[in-house]
Amino acid sequence: MNDREKLLAEAGINTRLSHIGNDPADFHGFVNPPVVHASTVLFPNARTMETRGQKYSYGTRGTPTTDALCDAINELEGSAGTILVPSGLAAVSVPFLSFLAAGDHVLVVDSVYFPTRNFCDTMLTRLGVTVEYYDPMIGAGIEALIRPNTRLVHTEAPGSNTFEMQDIAAISAVAHQHGCIVMMDNTWATPVFFRPLDFGVDISIHAATKYPSGHSDVLLGTVSANAAHWQQLWDGNFAMGICGSPDDSYQILRGLRTMGVRLERHQESALAIAQWLEGRDDVARVLHPALPSFPGHEIWKRDFKGASGIFSFVLDVRSPEKFKAKAHAFLDALSYFGLGYSWGGFESLAVHVNLADRTISKAPAEGPVIRLQIGLEDVADLRKDLERGFAAAAAV
């Protein structure tokens, strides 16, 4: 470890985010690494070409730009290696395909991101993999579900849309006792607030589309592995010819520089809105892990260093036939909150989530679930906007 690496290892998160993934001395003093567009790479002679005896050999194997982002992610994750893929969903599907084979059994948390469930129920099952969903609150009890052919346990904390917390350390310990790989979708917390590999996870995935980008204009996924699983992850990804582009990598690397301060603002504003929502009579429940009232709060408090800007609440409707009408009225009355998927950008978003796919973690009975992404706007303005939504819902 050189002096610079030692300094960064001991530095605070915002200092690290400002300096990881690039050494200006490598590029004539320029602060940001160059964007290197490449497919073909030339070799000085036939022997070097035959042995691939130089750092870069073809565009799919990396460039100085993509390597800079991978280095930064490795620093944040504490991982042995990272691959870049074109989307967050690809960040889930590539490791599934890299580690699973026909005849394997995989355990997937029931509160999983819906596109992940769709991939499992279509592609994985078609390839002969048995998929079983489990209760996100199962903890060490997952041992009862592990079969002789269980190969992988997929986790996501908090859960998608309803934000159930998982005891990642307990699940990882049990899974490893049975030789299973543990994978985690850590998009909500980012490595700033939670480092999966420190809690026994083998493969940490992230939709860099969200907070690392921060501007709702880039699609990219990262997959980081510990030393024991890095080579197989790399081999699987390379065999499929999947890679992230240098332009997108550059934008994500730039987004990382401000991710820490943006997350602080997202966290502060989201918690303020969540606490305000808890005091409203027209809200049945607020689904935010950082609230003491939330069932998984103690796990969040024990394991996580912070909370991001996305959470949900349940409109208090009680009449199922009015769920959709009231949810739509609420959403249509909003101005600052855009109606859109994804999250992690500077702008606030709202969506009526569909939980019909759940088999164990059923939808709340009190009313429709509205997911909020709290952006960088002023909290007072966002509250006024939400009040317009509540008034419209009440009129239905």
From TrEMBL:
<dbReference type="Pfam" id="PF01053">
    <property type="entry name" value="Cys_Met_Meta_PP"/>
</dbReference>
<dbReference type="InterPro" id="IPR000277">
    <property type="entry name" value="Cys/Met-Metab_PyrdxlP-dep_enz"/>
</dbReference>
<dbReference type="GO" id="GO:0019450">
    <property type="term" value="P:L-cysteine catabolic process to pyruvate"/>
</dbReference>
<dbReference type="InterPro" id="IPR015421">
    <property type="entry name" value="PyrdxlP-dep_Trfase_major"/>
</dbReference>
<dbReference type="InterPro" id="IPR015424">
    <property type="entry name" value="PyrdxlP-dep_Trfase"/>
</dbReference>
<keyword id="KW-0456">Lyase</keyword>
<keyword id="KW-0663">Pyridoxal phosphate</keyword>
<comment type="similarity">
    <text>Belongs to the trans-sulfuration enzymes family.</text>
</comment>
<protein>
    <submittedName>
        <fullName>Cystathionine beta-lyase</fullName>
        <ecNumber>4.4.1.13</ecNumber>
    </submittedName>
</protein>
<dbReference type="GO" id="GO:0047804">
    <property type="term" value="F:cysteine-S-conjugate beta-lyase activity"/>
</dbReference>
<dbReference type="GO" id="GO:0030170">
    <property type="term" value="F:pyridoxal phosphate binding"/>
</dbReference>
<dbReference type="InterPro" id="IPR006233">
    <property type="entry name" value="Cys_b_lyase_bac"/>
</dbReference>
<feature type="modified residue" description="N6-(pyridoxal phosphate)lysine">
    <location>
        <position position="210"/>
    </location>
</feature>
<dbReference type="GO" id="GO:0019346">
    <property type="term" value="P:transsulfuration"/>
</dbReference>
<dbReference type="InterPro" id="IPR015422">
    <property type="entry name" value="PyrdxlP-dep_Trfase_small"/>
</dbReference>
